[in-house]
Amino acid sequence: MIAPNMSEDALLAFGISANGNLFWGLSPKGLQGIYNTLGCTAIEGIRLQDAIMYIDEEGKFKDKPKMNKLATLLAWLNGLSTDDWIAGDVIIFGTLSPTGEADGEDYDCPQYMFEIFQKFMNLKEHQIDSMISGFKWAAKRA
Question: Most buried residue among 5, 9, 108, 129 by CB atoms closer than 10 A?
Answer without folding.
Answer: 108
